[in-house]
């Protein structure tokens, strides 16, 4: 509210918050003017493109000619936010970011004491051909069956339908046991977390209730999932699916091997990154069976896990109470545990940024980074090209062009 922002403005000189909070305060509500601040710092500034709040704040700043009074600092591990391989593509990304920030890129020379070691799993574990196609068809059929049971019980919310559809990925990538856990616990927990986040957002913004449909669907969903569980477990074709997928088994074996080799080091810990939020909890439960002495915990972003549960998971990992964290890729930009010596990327990632930031979570010298899907050498080549472009002063936007870009923004061109 205006009174709260005014009070904070009189008491504090430094504000830290998310991009959306500041966009709302600066652009939508006008609680502050951008030129009330001498410095704006954009962490993970590679997001400053398209309709992202960073881009909207920067455009407003330069368009109003306020950049003469307000300095801008952006920080990022990788300016290239996408899948690129050619030098020209990286150079284009650099120019776009410099133009948006109206700032020059500086790449400090930071060397790690000992670089990480990149490895890949043994070959031959991937499903392909008729077996993989068979699982695709079965997953689609079972997801349709589950959604039909939910609809029959009165569920209408499209968010539930999307969550049910994601269950197919769990079956294909983790196996029958994980699929059943996701069905009996995961969908409902995700919807309750989504509802919790929406209600907090509604209260903060003071807007009318918009999500009555999901709230009304929680109990019918509970009944629908129970009915679907009976139908799924009675399905003869489903019974033929392995309890644990070959991928999940290989991951479990590799992690057991690394923790056994470091059994004398009780501070040895690691992170498993998954791309799909639906993977996190089922995978953590599978790994907990073999690594209970280590302690495994799962964490996901907003709309997938309640805030208090997420905070407890991160705290347990950071304090060493749990030494293996299974989390979505949103933690690439947030988890910072000095003792982390192992990172395993369960899913394929699409950007050089993910390679650099995910690898950066492994803080220990000679840490190991395991890629289940990506080619480590290819990713390191893209990283080298990113660094070369970042350090090449001839590839940046000339100072005169930055001034012209700022002038064009101010004139609305």
Keywords:
single chain, 413 residues, alpha/beta, 6-stranded parallel sheet, two-stranded parallel sheet, 9% strand
Order of helices and strands: HHEHEHEHHHHHHEHEHEEHEHH
Uncertain segments are none
Q: Which whole number gives the mean pLDDT?
A: 85
Strand arrangement in the largest pleated sheet:
3-8-7-4-6-5
- Report the strand count: 8
Descriptive notes:
It is a single chain. It is built from 15 helices and 8 strands. The protein is α/β, with parallel strands linked by helices and 413 residues long. Strands 3-8-7-4-6-5 form a 6-stranded parallel beta sheet, with helices on both faces. The chain has a two-stranded parallel sheet with strand order 1-2. The radius of gyration is 24 Å and the shape is globular. The relative contact order is 0.12.
Write the layout of secondary structure elements.
Blueprint: H1 2-11, H2 19-28, E1 39-43, H3 53-63, E2 71-75, H4 87-101, E3 117-119, H5 129-152, H6 158-174, H7 176-205, H8 212-233, H9 236-239, H10 246-261, E4 269-274, H11 277-290, E5 296-299, H12 307-318, E6 324-328, E7 340-345, H13 352-360, E8 368-371, H14 376-391, H15 399-411
Parallel strand pairs: 1-2, 3-8, 4-6, 4-7, 5-6, 7-8
Tell me briefly what this model is.
With 413 residues, this protein is α/β, with parallel strands linked by helices.
């Amino acid at each position: 509210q205006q009174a709260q922002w005014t009070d904070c403005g009189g008491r504090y000189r430094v504000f830290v918050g998310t991009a959306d909070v500041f966009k709302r305060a600066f652009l939508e509500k006008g609680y502050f003017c951008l030129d009330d601040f001498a410095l704006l710092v954009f962490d993970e500034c590679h997001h400053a493109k398209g309709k992202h709040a960073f881009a909207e704040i920067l455009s407003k700043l330069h368009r109003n000619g306020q950049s003469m009074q307000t300095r801008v600092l952006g920080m990022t591990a990788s300016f290239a936010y996408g899948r690129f391989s050619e030098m020209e593509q990286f150079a284009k990304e650099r120019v776009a970011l410099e133009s948006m920030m109206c700032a020059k890129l500086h790449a400090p020379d930071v060397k790690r004491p000992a670089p990480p070691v990149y490895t890949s799993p043994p070959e031959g574990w991937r499903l392909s051909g008729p077996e993989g196609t068979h699982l695709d068809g079965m997953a689609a059929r079972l997801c349709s069956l589950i959604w039909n049971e939910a609809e029959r019980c009165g569920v209408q919310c499209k968010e539930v339908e999307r969550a049910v559809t994601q269950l197919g990925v769990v079956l294909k990538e983790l196996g029958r046991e994980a699929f059943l856990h996701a069905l009996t616990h995961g969908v409902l927990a995700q919807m309750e977390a989504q509802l919790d986040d929406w209600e907090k957002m509604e209260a903060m913004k003071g807007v009318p209730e918009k999500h009555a449909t999901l709230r009304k669907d929680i109990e019918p969903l509970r009944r629908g999932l129970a009915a679907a569980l009976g139908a799924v477990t009675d399905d003869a074709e489903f019974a033929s699916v392995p309890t644990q997928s070959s991928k999940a088994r290989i991951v479990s074996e590799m992690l057991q091997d690394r923790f056994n080799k470091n059994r004398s080091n009780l501070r040895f810990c690691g992170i498993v990154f998954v791309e799909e939020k639906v993977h996190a909890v089922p995978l953590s439960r599978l790994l907990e069976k073999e690594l209970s002495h280590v302690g495994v915990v799962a964490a996901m972003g907003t709309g997938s896990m309640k805030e208090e549960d997420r905070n407890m998971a991160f705290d347990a990992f950071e304090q060493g109470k749990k030494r293996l964290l299974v989390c979505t890729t949103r933690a690439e930009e947030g988890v910072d545990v000095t003792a982390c010596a192992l990172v395993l990327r369960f899913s394929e990632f699409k950007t050089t940024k993910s390679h650099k930031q995910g690898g950066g979570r492994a803080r220990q010298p000679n840490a190991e980074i395991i890629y289940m899907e990506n080619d480590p050498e290819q990713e390191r080549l893209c990283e080298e090209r990113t660094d070369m472009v970042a350090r090449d002063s001839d590839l940046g936007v000339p100072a005169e062009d930055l001034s012209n870009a700022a002038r064009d923004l101010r004139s609305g061109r």
